Every structure is written in C-alpha cells, then in structure tokens.
Amino acid sequence: MRNVEKYINKYSTVFNAVINGNTTVIKGILQPFHYRNKTYFTPKRLPAGVYDGRHYILITNPEYKDKLKKSLVINDGEHSFRVKSVEAYRVKNKDLYVWAVLTARTE
Asked: What is the pTM of this model?
C-alpha cells in the first residue's frame, strides 16, 4: 500500500482547494476522464472510450478525502475545476487512495 502513496507523491501536482473561503493545498494526479462504461454525468450519451473534454479524474492520497469532500473548487494556478464526486478505494477496511471526478470551470 505504501507503493501507491509513493507514486502519487512522486507524480502529483499541487492544487489549491477552496473550503469555506479558505485555501488549502491538495496534491494529486489529474487525468482526463474517459468513458469506458455506462456512467454518464450529463444526459448526452457518448460511445465507450470517448473523452468529452470536460471531465477529469483526480487521484490522491487518503489524507485529502475530507478536504476534497468539503471543497467545491480546486485549481492548479492555471486551470480551475469543480468537484463533482469523491470516492475512496478501500482494501481491508483501509483507504488505499481517493479519486474525485472534476469538471473544468469556464468562468
């Protein structure tokens, strides 16, 4: 389990999360979200394996789970994202990593 944490720390980007008007730091790996199953976040249906350019997945360490759940917006200094959902991947009743679905903000 320590290997997952090691790789997340090695390849992560620093994000600023805004929680109740205060800014805190979250480190994680951001990737475009590709639809590979029947999970859709909008009414528009897309073929499996398609990237729509609006959704991203953030993979981070379990220590950031509560911060992500409380945060509505995170940014990396250049791009801003809205947090849509947060889930933890658990092994033997322990969170191994946390993933969040984000949408790009266009303001």
From this structure: 0.77
